[in-house]
Write a structure and sequence with these properties.
two-stranded antiparallel sheet; 11 strands; 176 residues; 4 helices; mainly beta
């Protein structure tokens, strides 16, 4: 009996599919192959405070409202982040299947890059153990990602490596 396209795709891991979402301490690390990179949309992201991030907009902080359990996104000087667009999480990835099982029909990630204008460092630096590797950025398919969350789609969500999760209720923006 032949294998269906769906069965073939679901038997692959996310790295083989080319759409990885990895938990970090302050965001998701999103790694996309060329095919998935082409699916990034230029749709803006509107913050709860009304400010709008267009693709290419730069900022040093997204401030939040609410409790201390909802920390803001604040970058160390001289770093800044740049909004790169949105991408729908495919249902055939492990993260997409997990969201689908929890009642989410579709979910999008807000994608960002980070830049250091003084050292020209890229956002994912090689570790001390892997110093032979180069820095990774959007050209390599690497993005900083947050799940777009909330009824008004004005919040960002991520899971930490510790297993906890954070919701960022985006109130104001410090532009770069």
């Amino acid at each position: 009996m032949p294998i269906s396209r769906y069965e073939l795709i679901t038997s692959l891991n996310d790295k083989e599919i080319g759409f990885e979402i990895l938990n970090m301490d302050s965001c998701f690390k999103v790694i996309l192959n060329k095919s998935h990179k082409s699916r990034i949309t230029n749709k803006p992201f509107q913050l709860a405070g009304g400010d709008i991030l267009e693709v290419g907009d730069k900022f040093t902080a997204i401030n939040t409202k609410g409790s201390a359990g909802c920390p803001p996104i604040v970058l160390s000087k001289p770093w800044y982040q740049q909004y790169e667009g949105r991408i729908r999480i495919p249902n055939y990835t492990s993260y997409g299947r997990h969201l689908l099982c929890n009642g989410q029909q579709h979910s999008e990630l807000a994608l960002f890059s980070a830049h250091n204008p003084i050292t020209n460092e890229k956002m994912f630096s090689p570790t001390k153990r892997n110093i032979q590797q180069s820095y990774k950025d959007t050209e390599d398919g690497y993005y900083i990602g947050y799940l777009i969350f909330g009824k008004e789609e004005d919040q960002l969500f991520y899971c930490c490596t510790s297993g906890s999760s954070r919701v960022i209720s985006c109130k104001t923006l410090n532009r770069y």
